[in-house]
Specification:
Elements: H1 3-26, H2 28-31, H3 45-61, E1 66-68, E2 72-73, E3 81-89, H4 91-95, E4 102-109, E5 112-120, E6 125-130, E7 135-138, E8 141-143, E9 155-157, H5 168-178, E10 183-185, H6 190-198, E11 204-211, H7 212-224, E12 228-232, E13 239-245
Parallel strand pairs: 1-3, 9-10, 9-11
Antiparallel strand pairs: 1-2, 3-4, 4-5, 5-6, 6-7, 7-8, 11-13, 12-13
Helix pairs in contact: 1-3, 6-7
Length: 250
């Protein structure tokens, strides 16, 4: 893969994200309809229709396979390079008119992010980053991670996935870690959390049991903005544990 190839893929991902984001805004009255009865994991008609739109745009110009949140793998063998799509990250926020949600599209090679595009459609902000230019942008304006070094002056973003272990031991460990930070935020969107790290609004985002489609685009953007994106403990169902940071805070 050349830088020219990747440049075309970034343009394609931005096109798909923009079309999907505008659709999610303009058709919200028709697509903000719940499809499941799970009390924790909210799924909307919006998720399905946004994903179908993104896949249509991507597939029209790219031959790489797709791993998407709602439909899974486009082919049994994804190969080395494939797209990873979250058509609506922050579904519960979207459903309740909390404006922290986005479209997230990444391209990976051997589980390493090549590029990431995240469209915060509520604010018309398009975040992007890639390994070749090693730069991250928001609406083509460069962004960088913060320079903060001390947890006592820093913000930690975290979350509780719907299948979180709510045991006393797990929650106590989480609380002990939280007490070391100046402020804690739970915003309900992993992709937006990554954008906040990349643009210096917070210093660290960590979460266990999150899904690959929630975080892979963000990983590319964080690393391109000068931060660190650790992805580990991958399960067969594409769940992972992650730590994104400005790479400086201790």
């Amino acid at each position: 893969m050349t830088i020219q190839d990747l440049s075309k893929d970034i343009v394609l991902a931005k096109k798909a994200a923009l079309e999907s984001g505008k659709f999610l805004l303009n058709k919200k009255d028709q697509i903000n309809k719940r499809l499941n009865s799970d009390s924790k994991d909210v799924k909307l008609k919006a998720d399905i229709e946004s994903e179908n739109l993104i896949k249509s745009v991507i597939s029209s110009e790219s031959k790489y396979p797709i791993l998407a949140e709602e439909s899974g793998k486009s082919t049994e063998d994804l190969g080395e390079i494939y797209w990873v799509i979250d058509p609506l990250d922050g579904t519960a926020n979207y459903s309740r008119d909390i404006p922290i949600c986005c479209v997230s599209i990444g391209l990976v090679k051997g589980m390493k992010p090549l590029l990431g595009v995240i469209y915060d459609f509520n604010n018309n902000q398009m975040y992007s980053g890639d390994i070749f230019t090693n730069s991250a942008n928001m609406n083509d304006i460069p962004i960088n991670v913060s320079q903060k070094l001390d947890k006592k002056e820093s913000i930690l973003i975290t979350g509780l996935p719907y299948n979180t272990d709510y045991s006393n031991n797990s929650l106590n460990n989480m609380i002990q870690d939280m007490q070391q930070w100046q402020k804690i935020r739970m915003i309900g969107s992993a992709a937006m959390a990554a954008c906040y790290i990349a643009s210096g609004k917070a210093e660290k985002y960590q979460e266990n049991g999150i899904y690959l489609w929630d975080i892979i685009a963000g990983a590319a953007i964080v690393e391109s903005a000068g931060g660190s994106a650790e992805i580990f403990n991958q399960r067969e169902n594409f769940q992972v544990d992650i730590i994104f940071s400005n790479s400086k805070v201790k």
